[in-house]
Amino acid sequence: MTTKRLIFVPAVTTAALAAFSQTAVGAEAAPAARAQKTAFAPSSSVSRSGPMTRDKSFYSAAGTEANPLVFSAPPRGPKEDEIATYQPIADMLTAATGKKFVYRYSDNWLNYSKEMVKGSYDLVFDGPAFNGWRINHLEHTPLVKLPEDFVFVIVTGANSAHIKEVRHLAGRKVCAHSPPNLGTLTLLSQFDNPARQPTIMTIKGWQRAYEGLVAGECEGTILPVQILGKVDKEGRKTRVLYKHRAMPNNAFSAGPRISADMQNNIRSALLSEQGRSATARLRSKYAGKDFVLATRDEYASLGALLKDSIYYY
């Protein structure tokens, strides 16, 4: 019997930044992975090699009280908590750039994704797959990112001799977060045939994914390599089937209503002392490290991870 996977959609100088911006914008973006599955179709004016050049009136119209620049992020917690995390960033950017930024909360992944593909967001902070998709479809440019890379490993039980390769997990239960969690997207990217994929047993937390595997509730899982080193220090309970290449961390990206000069101003603001203060609560959720500059090249191919997610392809 064929088992089908269910998809749950839930201080830098101005000169240095200008030079960096020219390098980042000039890099070639990867093409889309598939034809569109939904009614949404990106504008034919989207450039695969970088944002278009527009006249000054296009940019001056955005960022006013009547037409603010919209900042958003994925729905990862209660509304009050998310506002406390992201509103200080919008306020800091308004003060630093002279443009009006507003934070827009999304209460679920469906709405967040739907508004994203419509191009409703001018500034976004989220994961590498979304950044890659926006580069290729919405003319977004990555600005700054969290410094540590993501490295994931797909593992099975140490005694699961019948599972020798990742493909042997097809049709079997795997403990994983609901998509579009980056780990789960990485796992599913190893299965090209939609009729030959694992069945996701939804869990919350990497520790729970590991516990479910060793308890026999599932036959595989995916974990950050650092987490695996903590939960199975001696490597006696698990066996690595696959190690994915390193991927860049969560990043801020700016859309086409934000000019190249304004992008540089936002980079400077986010990397400044005021920026570190405004992003303190956000960074504390990710080990508290300072942001670093991000480039198009490191994200451009990662939108393909969303190939089976609703709205994107």
Strand order, largest beta sheet: 2-1-3-10-4-11
Counted up, domains total 2
- Provide mean pLDDT, rounded: 86
Low-confidence stretches: 1-51
* CATH class value of the largest domain: Alpha Beta
So, the CATH homologous superfamily of the largest domain? Periplasmic binding protein-like II
What's the architecture of the largest domain, going by CATH? 3-Layer(aba) Sandwich
Shape: elongated
Order of helices and strands: HHEHEHEHEEEHEHEHEEHHHE
Question: What is the rounded Rg?
Answer: 20 Å
* Estimated structural class: alpha/beta
Fill in the CATH topology of the largest domain: D-Maltodextrin-Binding Protein, domain 2
Beta-strand portion reads 15-25%
Helix content: 25-40%
Task: Write the SSE topology.
Elements lengths: L13 H13 L29 H5 L8 E4 L6 H19 L3 E3 L5 H9 L5 E4 L1 H10 L3 E5 L6 E6 L15 E4 L5 H7 L10 E4 L3 H9 L5 E5 H7 L6 E6 L7 E4 L5 H12 L1 H6 L1 H5 L7 E2 L20
Parallel strand pairs: 1-2, 1-3, 6-7, 6-8
Antiparallel strand pairs: 3-10, 4-10, 4-11, 5-8, 5-9
How would you characterize this protein structure?
This protein has 313 residues and is of the alpha/beta class. The chain folds into 2 domains: 14-148 and 248-306, D-Maltodextrin-Binding Protein, domain 2 (3-Layer(aba) Sandwich); 152-243, Periplasmic binding protein-like II (D-Maltodextrin-Binding Protein, domain 2, 3-Layer(aba) Sandwich). The protein has 11 helices and 11 strands. The protein has a 6-stranded mixed beta sheet with strand order 2-1-3-10-4-11, with helices on both faces. A 5-stranded mixed beta sheet has the order 7-6-8-5-9. Strand 6, helix 6 (182-188) and strand 7 form a beta-alpha-beta unit. The two termini are 28 Å apart. Residues 1-51 have low confidence and may be disordered.
